[in-house]
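Whiteboard transcription, Tuesday session. T.W. wrote the structure tokens on the left side:
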């Protein structure tokens, strides 16, 4: 009896089938796909510089070269397109999900967004009007004073306190731009006033944005800001254009530029705003500062090559001082020392690893610099020299002059 009871108990506590003891795995659940490799930060940098430069050069070409003298209409078109695209992106992508954390009410919109939109519209209008009078190179030189205008606007609106040390640092920017202005050959006072007003309006807008974003509940990235600002700016610009430009605008003016040209122009302008969001998220403040400086230099060079803009030695000297002061103001002495030290070590290590590549880079940089100098300064030397006579008297080169060889000795 005891033996039977013992056998019964042993059967009850006997382990179950080992197959049933194994952890179950659902074959329907797939392993998560590996994360897609992130793009190198240089991709975002190149994209932003390319788009930013393209917008400025494109606007200059439309307003000046293509003779579409309706800058307010062009600005209105950009803002209307941006309004449409931000609404589409808000409903189809996650790029504008940041707006869900913004506690936007009608009262806040009227008291904060509308004033910012007003100054944003004024800065865009003045900026586009400037293209009718000044060269891209000179405009970029004047824009270097934006940090100074922001400081003054911040002091005036009570957002920041007066700091004489900071004012002394930015004074070099002012000195450089003043020298560049004195060196400008085609100085047009009307264009200069428009650009100064545009910088002032932009500075006030930035200060108002700074004051709005000082509260954590209104933190917005540039694309979300455009989502809120673009509609009110488009309406304001449309009203102004109805009074000033639309009465003299004809369908022939639009067709002369081309509908597709205007569409591509608006698409590039909007793509620039999208690229800014990714650039800020993937890079540092140093990269942003240097990207801005590099973009300005490239725009000056592009203006010289595309439109034959003459840049005098005084302008180049003044602009160099302004850019140096801009970098010093944004980064500070300590950061600059650290970056220069780190950059020097990196450059030396690169030279040890790839000596041939470093030599090629130095050669290309030197050649480009000399090319820009000669292109900018060449028209000032022997401006009355006409090579046509020499070519016409040449036995082999006279086709370049379009005439038959003249009588006399041939070279």
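and on the right, the sequence the group agreed on:
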């Amino acid at each position: 009896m005891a033996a039977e009871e013992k056998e019964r108990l042993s059967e009850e506590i006997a382990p179950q089938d080992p197959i049933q003891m194994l952890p179950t795995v659902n074959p329907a659940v797939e392993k998560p796909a590996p994360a897609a490799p992130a793009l190198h930060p240089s991709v975002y940098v190149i994209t932003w510089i390319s788009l930013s430069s393209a917008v400025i050069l494109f606007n200059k070409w439309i307003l000046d070269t293509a003779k579409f003298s309706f800058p307010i209409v062009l600005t209105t078109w950009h803002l209307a397109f941006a309004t449409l695209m931000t609404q589409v992106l808000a409903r189809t992508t996650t790029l504008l999900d940041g707006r869900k954390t913004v506690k936007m009410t009608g009262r806040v919109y009227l008291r904060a967004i509308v004033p910012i939109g007003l100054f944003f519209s004024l800065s865009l209008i003045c900026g586009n009007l400037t293209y009718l009078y000044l060269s891209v190179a000179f405009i970029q030189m004047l824009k270097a004073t934006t940090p100074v205008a922001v400081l003054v606007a911040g002091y005036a609106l009570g957002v920041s306190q007066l700091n004489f040390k900071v004012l002394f640092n930015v004074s070099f920017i002012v000195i450089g731009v003043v020298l560049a202005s004195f060196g400008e050959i085609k100085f047009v006072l009307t264009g200069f006033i428009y650009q100064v007003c545009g910088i002032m309006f932009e500075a006030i807008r930035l200060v108002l944005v700074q004051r709005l974003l000082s509260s954590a509940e209104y933190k917005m990235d540039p694309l979300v800001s455009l989502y809120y600002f673009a509609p009110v700016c488009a309406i304001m610009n449309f009203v102004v254009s109805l009074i000033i430009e639309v009465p003299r605008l004809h369908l022939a003016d639009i067709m002369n530029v081309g509908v597709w040209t205007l569409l591509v122009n608006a698409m590039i302008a909007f793509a620039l705003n999208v690229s800014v969001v990714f650039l800020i998220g993937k890079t540092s403040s140093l990269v942003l500062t240097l990207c801005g400086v590099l973009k300005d230099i490239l725009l000056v060079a592009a203006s010289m090559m595309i439109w034959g803009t003459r840049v005098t030695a005084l302008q180049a000297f003044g602009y160099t001082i302004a850019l140096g002061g801009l970098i010093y103001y944004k980064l500070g002495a300590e950061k600059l020392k650290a970056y220069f030290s780190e950059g020097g070590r990196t450059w030396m290590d690169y030279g040890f690893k790839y000596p041939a590549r470093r030599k090629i880079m130095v050669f290309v940089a030197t050649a480009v610099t000399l090319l820009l100098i000669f292109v900018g300064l060449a028209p000032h030397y022997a401006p009355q020299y006409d090579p046509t006579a020499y070519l016409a008297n040449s036995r082999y080169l006279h086709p370049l002059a379009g005439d038959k060889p003249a009588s006399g000795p041939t070279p």
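Someone added at the bottom: Residues 83 and 230 are 5 Å apart (CA to CA).
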